[in-house]
Each structure stands twice: as C-alpha cells, then as structure tokens.
Amino acid sequence: SDAMCTRVRCSLLSGLTNGAISCLSESSNISMASYEDTCSFTCNTNYTLTGSDSRTCQIDGTWTGVQSLCVNASEAKISGGSTGSSGAAIGGAVAGVLIVVIVVTI
Q: Please, is 1 exposed, middle or buried when counting C-beta atoms within 10 Å of its C-beta (0-12, 13-18, 19+)?
C-alpha cells in the first residue's frame, strides 16, 4: 500500500474576551491551525494578560503554553497596586475546563 502523509492540526483556540488573537499560519483559516503555526495574544486598554502571550501548534496536535485571559487591570490590582507575592491573578485550562484563581491577602 502507498504511504500517506497528513498535516498535523491543532484544535481551534477559544476567543479572547477583551483582547485579540493574532496568528501566523500557512492557512488563512485559523480553525485549520497546523504544526508550527503560532498565535499571539493582546489585551484591550485597561486589561492585563494572564497565561501565555503566545502559543504554538506542536507535532502532537496540542498547543504550547496555557490558556490566556484578559483581566480588568483595576480588578487585578492588590492593595497598593501590586500583583507580586501579596497576590496574583492566575488563569489556566485543564482538560478543556477554564480555571481562574484570584488570590487576595488582607
């Protein structure tokens, strides 16, 4: 039988609320993202990006990095305007379930 090659595809990245996704792809249709295609994330004014600032389609059909979110900058600030060790806004995705954790210390 003849060997056949098929292009590795990654699933469609979910939309970024309060931001934009920009992808470099060989295909004009991002729903057809392929191996080594890269997408970058930016947030609207007054929003802060959490998660990965870019993700790349891997050889196994998964994306590098973690789910990106745009959070309201004023809501993400912890007393004194710091998001350092006293608190942070963290976003991620596990098995298709969106997890958002906001840590606040008083």
A: exposed
pTM above 0.70, yes or no: no
Q: What does each of the 106 residues of the chain score in pLDDT, given as a tens digit? A: 688 888 888 988 888 999 999 987 766 555 678 899 999 999 999 999 999 999 999 999 999 999 999 999 887 665 344 443 333 333 433 333 333 334 444 4
Identity at 104, one-letter amino acid code: V
Q: What are phi and psi of 62, to 5 degrees?
A: -110, 165
Tell me if 40 sits within 8 A of 25, measured CB to CB.
no
Q: Are 78 and 104 in contact (CB under 8 A)?
A: yes
